[in-house]
Amino acid sequence: MPNQSTSFPPEIKSQLQLLISANHILHYHGLVDAFGHISIRHPLNPNHYIIASYNPGAPALVSSFAHFIEYRVSDSSPLDQDAPRGYSERYIHSEIFKRFPRVMCVVHSHSEAVIPFMTAGVQIRPVFHMAGFLGKDGPPTFDVTRTYQDLESRKISHSPDMLIKTEHLGAKLAETFDVQDRAFGDVSVEREVEARPVVLQHKHGFTCVGDSIQNAVYRAIYLQKNCALLKNALDLQSVKRASAADISFLTEEEAKGCAKMNEMTADKAFRLWLREVEVNPLYRNEEGVPKDLPVGGMKD
Ligand SMILES: [Zn+2]
């Protein structure tokens, strides 16, 4: 049953409408199936976050505000004691919101285009201008299995199912988003979201963040597109019998320049993605889709 007791203030209506559509967009682009999720920090209360409940069954089937649950960032407990069942992996979201105050949106995906790179031990790096946000060296990988021995020695019960189902594991994943810039020391809190917005999860998928729904969704979609292009390039290299070291990745300067552009153009892409799911009968947004979203784009 939908979570009928949830009521959200009217000031956040447009963000929740977008969150419904963002669930659909991630499905439309193959980032989520029955699994995977997207959350937002509560726009009026930074100590809370909002994510779909387990009940709709899949992100594609989220259709109303009643499908959302509001949780405390502190421990991922629901505000409503009678809230329906939530995602067991919601600690991914709460621990990232806890560690990074400027993160407003978190996406978690089991993308089939991304996972093989970890399986094969091939580092993902940006190969085109739309993926500058990955940084020259590409995103780090979090391997949850490395925590299992520690949990066993501390006699903490766990299941080796690769899921992030506790605050402890969520915090370990969130730590992997930390940035240390060798040239300039620690990156400031203001820049950390942009500096390392993606963490890959070995044998599982990835999680990415943004300061808006648009930026987080953009990064998820273009990480996946980058992986498809990189895979194609590696295939072509193998035809040439050349080394993978010959792949032409973005340089550090190019990646930084493109990352800035990526942030400024995410709203343009998002308007198209909204329309794609709006006209597809699989997806229902009973709350309405915000019209005429501003498209700032690049400033000359
Ligand atoms: Zn997962």
Provide an overview of this structure.
This is Arad-like aldolase/epimerase. It contains eight helices and nine strands. It has about 300 residues and is α+β, with helices and mostly antiparallel strands. The chain has a single domain (about 10-280), classed as 3-Layer(aba) Sandwich (L-fuculose-1-phosphate Aldolase). It has a seven-stranded mixed beta sheet with strand order 3-2-1-4-9-8-5, sandwiched between helices. Strands 6-7 form a two-stranded antiparallel sheet. Helix 1 (about 15-30) packs parallel to helix 7 and helix 7 packs across helix 8 (about 250-280). Bound molecules: zinc ion.
Short characterization:
This is Arad-like aldolase/epimerase. The chain has 300 residues and is of the alpha+beta class. Helix content is 37%, strand content 12%.
